[in-house]
Amino acid sequence: MDITLAAGPWQDVDTDWLIVGYAPADSPETFPAPLAALDEALDGTIARLISSGDITGKLAELHLLADVPGIAAGRLLLVGVGSIDRLTSAKLEKALVTATRRASKAASVRAAIALPSQEDGILDDNSAAGLAAMALQTGCVGQSLYRTEPGRHAFSEATVVSDAQQSAAVDRGSILGQAINLTREMVNRTAMEVYPETFADRAVTVANECGLECEVLDENRLRDERMGSLLAVAQGSTRPPRVVVLRHNGAGQDAPSLAIVGKGVTFDSGGLSLKSNEGMKTMKCDMAGAATMLGAMTAIARLDLPVNVIGLAGLVENMPDGNSFKLGDVLTARNGTTIEVLNTDAEGRLVLADVLAYAVDLGARRLIDLATLTGACVVALGEEVTGVFSNDDEWRDQVVEASARSGEPAWPMPMLDLFDDLIKSDVADIKNVGPRWGGAITAAKFLERFVDDTPWVHLDIAGPSFASSNKAHREGGGTGCMVRTLVAAAEAMENG
Ligand code: BES
Ligand code: MN
Ligand code: ZN
Question: Is pTM, for the whole model, over 0.70?
Fold first, then answer.
């Protein structure tokens, strides 16, 4: 879906749904100029709705005016953005996605979002226009992939209405929205459809579309590359494993590379340490890290960022079987570290171990990995906050700042030496589980053993990458969280 940029006046925008944001303090005297003109065309309807208390401007409050005479649009959808003084990009996104979700329930709808310009106070023009484009892309896509009657429909035309010159911001927002939708779609598709080979096939297709180099490592190659830890996890499945390597070469050959590594467990049954029905229900989502990497790489390529980025996905299915890896097994990872397996459900770290080591060997100078790694991280930070773990304070701060700029909550966790003792093994170098407490940190400490001295950030997205239910402001299922943060982190690399 393409997004066009159009200029006002708002009352003349020819569309089916015109979405207009307003704040609680907006009264006829303080209306931004284009809103005042719109209200005049409406004979003061908005002003009357405010004085009667029917609209308050509370964040994400919707008020629909259908069949309104006086303006070109078929419907006017007013959406509250909350207090302008306290407006953040996350809040504006929430408001705009609530509105685009509402407008996309019917098929073949033309939708437009009108935004006042900077003098009128909402964020800065570029962020607001970018968010509007993104909301048009993400709000009209749902998780009802397999319904005969889909719950949402792509807009037949999508427009951002603004007087300022913001085509670059609109393009960027649109590209980010499409990247997020790709990640969401990959997560939302069933494990029957998405397994290592089909994920890799899709990565090849997507790479060709957006100009990324793509290489797929099959089982034999993974054996040649000594990825014993990843291969052990794959052993119990009829689906052979794959590692996908994507490259965006936006800077010179000698420029340092950022590597983004994603956990791609296409289904996590727990293996012989089998999960309960309740715990297994949503485990098609366990490849969200790999899907987030893929989405972000498409955006990095399409934005043609002047940086070198390598995207890697470790793809396996974790299943119980006569061939499964077993408790007590000792694995030798690519970097020579030996690992005692004490729980086959702690498989994500075993997959990432080898792919992180491979990324280091490819010459990556900065690392970010993303993984639906631990339930413990969800216990610690809740369902909406990403856990941040690192071996390098400076790089960690850069990634956390990128997440803040992107409006995606992320929080650093302590990586104290005392946690290293908790994964020592009596029979091997390390074991793949620690004690119950501090489980998100011991998992991160395990990963740290495979990155050498490379500045590395691990993002545990077990909570925020998958939403259990639909809400007015966001669809359930895959969320596409951290796609924007990755792009923002790559952009920050440009500057050193
Ligand atoms: N994929 C799960 C983690 C997970 C849990 C993701 C909930 C999304 C939502 C991971 O492979 C896992 O099973 N982790 C175990 C680790 C334990 C065995 C040390 C967990 O969190 O229980
Ligand atoms: Mn598991
Ligand atoms: Zn898992």
Answer: yes
